[in-house]
Design brief:
Blueprint lengths: L5 H7 L5 H14 L3 H7 L5 H12 L2 E2 L9 H4 L4 H7 L1 E7 L2 E6 L5 H11 L2 E6 L2 H11 L19 E10 L2 E8 L4 E9 L5 H11 L9 E7 L2 E7 L3 E3 H8 L4 H22 L10 E4 L2 E4 L19 H17 L21 H10 L11 H9 L37 H8 L6
Parallel strand pairs: 1-4, 3-4
Antiparallel strand pairs: 2-3, 5-6, 6-7, 7-9, 8-9, 10-11, 11-12
Length: about 425
């Protein structure tokens, strides 16, 4: 059987034109994203049409996730994080046989791991990506709070098709299309009476910053008695919700995402000076990595001994707090207990104890001079090779082998695991 490329199938099926395919291929070269995602985002065709093309090519049936039945006992075959990361959902189990729904039939890594993890004879169906991811989140109870009523917020006429996604601490989150610039954006709306001048200043600083680890802010304005912030389209999940629903992170994953946030914080220091934004509620984990979204004032648990003043020293302390919470699932400074927690896990390598001790030092002069230097310190170790404090080598756990958490997959090609770690880390955490 000869397999055709997706672009060829879409053109031959008269779903897109040759010119549209050329435009999408050119965009793919600069973004390293999947072709299907690009043609859908640009409005050339729909996800359902792509699913039908792939089903025809590979001989799979198409599953409508809005109506397809799911056996409760099938959900337990796969862990939630694997299902989200690989875009696969178990829907039926019958003895030694099981049925799974995927959106990418050429993701051989996912299909192979499904067979290994479940020890079942696997049958695969195809579904549109967005509906499948939504069903996975629903099946595992991962949705970040359901908005039960539409807020009294009039979305500006420039933004069409506004869809209410969620509500977080009185801030409403929409997805909409900016018809003037022909792009999908995320909108945040809150009462003007709740405006915080310090927070507004930090949002304005973020709007002047260009870094992959801070969400791109397109606009900030007042409309119909509401504050509005227009950001890039954000597909992901807050770190706060991940820690609440799935618990602590492994060493490799925690250091990778905290390093990314630290680079974003350093970029904000360069542009605005005053930050004070580090907390799990302000971090969204996307397919591309961690993104800082400057929308909430952190709780007192993320305050340094000298206060939450947004200086490099206080932000380094907050980053240490974030790292500690990612590794343990607990907040270290409750009840005013500053500095390094006394109940450090004996399984933490000495290198991690040193990083935490310096980041959480009570004296500002003992901390890392900048967030960037803290990021460099974390990235200089290979955290997937763990040593106990007695220098006795132990086998790395499965969590330590995890790549950066990808909650909402955007269809990007996964980098080879060996190359990723070789490029990112250079020496062993002894």
């Amino acid at each position: 059987m000869t397999y055709r490329k997706l672009g060829e199938m879409l053109v031959q099926g008269e779903l897109i034109t040759s010119l549209q395919l050329s435009i999408a291929l050119a965009a793919q070269q600069t973004s390293n994203r999947r072709l299907g995602e690009i043609v859908v985002e640009r409005g050339f065709c729909t996800e359902d049409q792509i699913a039908l093309c792939l089903a025809e090519q590979f001989g799979y049936e198409v599953a409508d996730m809005a109506t397809h039945p799911i056996q409760p006992e099938a959900i337990g075959l796969l862990k939630a994080e694997f299902a989200l990361e690989q875009g696969v959902l178990a829907v039926e189990v019958n003895g030694e046989d099981a049925t799974f729904v995927i959106f990418d039939p050429v993701n051989v890594e996912a299909t192979d791991q499904v067979a290994v993890l479940t020890k079942k004879r696997a049958k695969f169906l195809i579904s549109a990506r967005t509906s499948l991811i939504a069903k996975i989140r629903e099946a595992y109870g991962l949705n970040e709070g359901q908005v039960v009523a539409t807020p009294n917020a009039v979305v500006p006429s420039r933004y069409h098709g506004a869809r209410l996604l969620k509500e977080i601490e009185g801030v409403y989150v929409f997805e909409a299309t900016d018809h003037e610039l022909n792009r999908t954006v995320t909108l945040f709306s809150s009462d003007t009476g709740a405006a915080d001048h310090g927070l507004v200043h930090r949002i304005q600083a973020a709007a002047r910053t260009s870094t992959p680890y801070v969400a791109a802010i397109h606009d900030l304005f007042e409309h119909e008695g509401k504050n509005w912030v227009v950001l890039e389209k954000l597909e992901g999940e807050t770190l706060a919700h991940i820690l609440k629903t799935r618990g602590q992170r492994g060493l490799s994953q925690a250091t990778t995402l905290v390093s990314q946030v630290a680079e974003g914080i350093d970029a904000l220091h360069q542009r605005g000076g005053h930050v004070g934004l580090v907390c799990p509620e302000n971090i969204v984990i996307t397919a591309a990595g961690a993104k800082l979204v400057p929308l909430f004032n952190p709780s007192q648990n993320y305050s340094s001994p000298e206060g939450m003043n947004g200086t490099p020293a206080s932000d380094v302390f907050a980053l240490g707090t974030l790292l500690w919470e990612c590794l343990t699932g607990r907040k270290p400074h409750e009840n005013g207990n500053w500095g390094i927690p006394n109940d450090l896990s004996p399984d933490l390598p000495l290198a991690m104890v040193e990083v935490l001790t310096r980041a959480l030092a009570k004296d500002q002069g003992d901390r890392y001079p900048s967030a960037l230097l803290m990021a460099s310190a974390m990235r200089s170790y290979n955290w997937s090779v763990i040593s106990t404090p007695t220098a006795e080598r132990v086998a790395p756990s499965s969590k330590d082998r995890e790549q950066l958490l990808s909650i909402m997959t955007s269809g990007q090609e996964d980098e080879p695991k060996t190359g990723f770690w070789q490029r990112l880390f250079r020496r062993t955490a002894a």
